[in-house]
Design brief:
Blueprint lengths: L7 H9 L3 H37 L1 H5 L1
């Protein structure tokens, strides 16, 4: 795509993230978000897996 098709605002927005500090800050934020989601997701998946396992147990209906 020729650069003439891209507005000046878009070009400034793209070059704004070329700063090493801003890229490092963005990477750190994404890494922190991924870690937080992992900490939340593991207990949820463990609980839902054990709950589904209990529901699939044939003895569960007899109790």
């Amino acid at each position: 795509m020729p650069s003439s098709w891209v507005s000046a605002e878009a070009r400034n927005g793209i070059t704004q993230w070329r700063s090493p500090f801003k890229r490092r800050l963005l990477s750190l934020g994404l890494l922190l978000e991924l870690a937080l989601l992992t900490v939340i997701a593991i207990p949820l998946l463990t609980f839902s897996g054990s709950a589904i396992g209990k529901l699939n147990d044939p003895g569960h209906l007899a109790q």
